[in-house]
Amino acid sequence: MTGMIEGYLGRESVVLGGEMTLHISTDAPRFRLRFYRLGETLDLVGESREFRGEEHPVPGHPDGFPGRASPADDWEWPPLTLPVPEAWTQGIHLVEFVETGGPDTTGEPPLLDLAHLEGHAREFFVVRPASPAAVPASSTRSPPTPGTPTTGPTGPASTGPSASTTTPSTGPAAPANPEVTRSASTAPAA
Known about the structure:
A hairpin with a 3-residue loop joins β4 (30-38) and β5 (42-48). Strands 2, 4, 5, 6, 8, 9, 10 and 11 form an 8-stranded mixed sheet that branches. The chain is mainly β. The protein has strands at residues 5-9, 13-15, 19-26, 30-38, 42-48, 51-52, 79-83, 91-100, 122-128, 166-167, 180-183. It is globular, with a radius of gyration of 18 Å. The protein has one domain: Immunoglobulin-like, CATH 2.60.40.1930. The protein is built from no helices and 11 strands.
């Protein structure tokens, strides 16, 4: 893909069951968002519907550096507000900005993996519980005893992202707003 898509979050820390605000600029006619959780593996946890793309100007740097903008300033691009599903797990997440609908966007772009976390068209953010009391005791682990083997909550690390199929959010943990769908691997069991 040779198009341009950039974005930033209104806040880099969001609450389960709350909202997140993104600001996106693209020369593609449409775009969507892929959401991943970063742990021992990179797991696809959801994907948005498509949104209409718009290109927005990057403001000048406050110190006058030509061709550079300040990453600390709000660039005043229009907001896109989405729910943070209560079914997500707290921790470090990544949103990938995916161009769709343009001549350079044929085919489905591959899912990200641990070897390709850095780069353009993505932003990291933290999902935290709605209240500190909501943090499960299992998430506050003591350091392992020296010489004791350790594994993550799902066993040894795998080599790639989880299944990429998505289904609309359903069940008691589903967001009230269906803007973000959940991957099949995170859908509640029937």
